[in-house]
Write a structure and sequence with these properties.
About 50% of the residues lie in helices and about 15% in strands. The protein has a five-stranded parallel beta sheet with strand order 2-5-8-1-9. It has a two-stranded antiparallel sheet with strand order 3-4. The longest helix is centred in the first third of the chain and has 25 residues. It folds into two domains: about 230 residues, P-loop containing nucleotide triphosphate hydrolases (Rossmann fold, 3-Layer(aba) Sandwich); about 110 residues, Orthogonal Bundle (Helicase, Ruva Protein, domain 3), CATH 1.10.8.80. The radius of gyration is 21 Å and the shape is globular. It has 15 helices and eleven strands. The protein is of the alpha/beta class and about 325 residues long. Helix 10 packs across helix 12. A hairpin with a 2-residue loop joins strand 6 and strand 7. Belongs to the MoxR family. This is AAA family ATPase. GO terms for molecular function: ATP binding; ATP hydrolysis activity. Keywords: ATP-binding, Nucleotide-binding.
């Protein structure tokens, strides 16, 4: 009987610590509670996040603030069209010792950190973008046939400008699938922008303070995986993901009509982890179906694509997800 009691106590303690982390982040990143919640959920789930938005919305500052609050060593890479894979991963150099002997030595690139900021990731060529694939999935890189493990924990927070801007390359589908969530960073409303003006243009700015250590974050990630998930939530995740696959018998009508391809099993895994993390962030002991619906768009939107006819009609992936989620929600309510 002690294990459930201990688990509840651990969840409550972590919830209090996360509340302090959110307060510290919000002192610098003002008025974007939804964005902060999704980024924290991504870190708690052990995943990577893709921040999509126009320049000047605070994406870079958010990542810098997170590295401080979560106690993680960080690196920043500014992606440009001439960036090469070795600029990210590192390279081997030939060194001559004092005795005249020569040997290759590996010089680590900026990917060897705990929190990597990939700034404007879609400005680099697909070849360079793909250099992150192994690091994001396997937490190691291979250079000249030698495997080099990365730091623990390891997270990538990438920023992306909208594709319609000049000089950008669409991210490959395989790389998009490695991002746990896609987070849309929108313009602030008038009241929030006023608060930002007053807070950031004075003599002093709000400072973030460290709340977590790397070891505490790793422990929190393990605790997320121990959180109980009800059968109803599991079924809602399966219903939602499978309803978004146009080739499945359970596919929703809008999915068959509008989608070229849908999310794979990794999307269901991502939902299973992030709903637990969201519940924990909000101080609850277990996730609900409402968590599944709230996370449908950030988890699924980058894992599916519209077909030609849907694009011609002006459909959007977000609208398709909303309709599928509403249908799944209706079925869940009818089953009760």
């Amino acid at each position: 009987m002690s294990e459930p009691v201990d688990l509840v106590a651990e969840i409550e303690m972590l919830g209090a610590k996360l509340a302090a982390a959110r307060a510290s982040i919000n002192r610098r990143f003002i008025g974007q509670e939804r964005v902060v919640e999704l980024v924290l959920a991504s870190l708690l789930s052990g995943g990577h996040a893709l921040l999509v938005g126009l320049p000047g919305l605070g994406k870079t500052m958010l990542v810098e603030t997170l590295s401080t609050v979560m106690g993680l060593s960080s690196s920043r890479i500014q992606f440009t069209p001439d960036l090469m894979p070795a600029d990210i991963l590192g390279s081997e150099v030939l060194e001559t010792a004092t005795d005249g002997s020569r040997a290759f030595r590996f010089l680590e690139g900026p990917v060897f950190c705990q929190l990597l900021m990939a700034d404007e990731i879609n400005r680099a060529s697909p070849r360079t973008q793909s250099a992150l694939l192994q690091a994001m999935q396997e937490r190691e890189v291979t250079v000249a046939g030698v495997h080099h493990p990365l730091g623990r924990p390891f997270h990538v927070l990438a920023t992306q400008n909208p594709i319609e801007q000049e000089g950008t390359y669409p991210l490959p589908e395989a790389q998009l699938d490695r991002f746990l969530v896609q987070i849309d960073v929108d313009y602030p409303d008038r009241a929030t922008e006023r608060e930002i003006l007053l807070a950031t243009t004075g003599a002093e700015e709000g400072a973030a303070v460290a709340v977590f250590t790397p070891e505490e974050l790793i422990a929190a990630q393990a605790l997320v995986r121990r959180m109980p998930v009800g059968e109803r939530v599991v079924e809602a995740i399966l219903d939602l993901v499978r309803a978004c696959r146009p080739g499945e018998p359970e596919a929703a009508g809008i999915a068959r009509d509008a989608l070229a391809w849908g999310p794979g099993p990794r999307a269901a895994q991502a939902l299973m982890l992030t709903v637990r993390a969201r519940a924990l962030i909000e101080g609850r002991l277990a996730p609900s179906v409402e968590d599944v619906l709230a996370l449908a768009r950030p988890v699924l939107s980058h894992r599916m694509a519209l077909n030609f006819a849907a694009r011609a009609r002006g459909e959007t992936v977000s609208a398709v997800i909303a309709r599928v989620a509403a249908e799944v929600s209706g079925l869940a309510e009818a089953a009760e």
